[in-house]
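How a chain folds remains the central question behind the approach discussed here. This step matters because it turns folding into a mapping between discrete strings. The sequence in question and its structure tokens are set out directly beneath this paragraph.
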Amino acid sequence: MARYAHHMADQPRDTCTIREALEAIKTGSQEVFNARDALSRGNKGTYDDIKGGLEDYTFSGVFLGERTRECFNPDSCTNTFLVDIDNLPINDVETIKDRIASHECVRFVFISPSGNGLKVGLHVPTYRNDAEFKVIFEHVEKLFKEQFNVPIDRACKDINRFCYTSFDENIYIKEDASMLDIDVTPKLANESQFDAQFETVPADTPPKDPINEKAKERYILKRGVAIFAKACFGHPCPSKRQKLNATANAFGAPDVLRTCHFATPS
């Protein structure tokens, strides 16, 4: 994962392991103490200024170039989804923290810089891009609503979401957390809508609406292409590299080519 000097930095200061980041949060820093003190005195502006200068992390992984969703390096996936819970009653923070920590898929929980929020790391399946990360978010949001009755920040859905350092001497860490059982493959556009609309229609039903029937045909064709692509290339929307590699293997390229990666123009 990447560590940044502050939230405005495009380039990371360095990389670190999740464990190293959590140990730093367990120890804390003077800046975090100053921020909490300012907020407790009602100095929200001072708190925001100090918080903006805190170092931060991208628990999802690292980025090739700027910290944007498009620049995420899929090889750096940490299998961790970070949940942000804000504005909890200050007297309930520890109780809610303990409840969430009891879930088998929780890797860590710590109190946010403000002191009235929580950061939760969940063990999730491998994600390769922002679209797959957002699929995980939908499952996680539902999980927290149903099991803990706690709303989570929807900004967590972005793969380039960063997390400020904090202080929590009683940080919860579980090295062997179970993995959430989630299919991260994004649904095609309007897939749910068409599934619900056509799944109960008998094949021999006369078309009542020619326009709607055309839409159904386009949907079936799109689904067929996606299924074929996933079978051949391992993904319903394969990259150029995946297509080239699969083509080389299918058409009997020399062994030396089958064992290397094709370069594609950017």
Observations:
- The CA atoms of residues 39 and 47 lie 6 Å apart.
- Residues 2-173 form one domain.
- The beta strands are 2-4, 14-15, 56-58, 80-85, 106-111, 118-123, 163-164, 172-173.
- The chain has two domains: 2-173, 191-258.
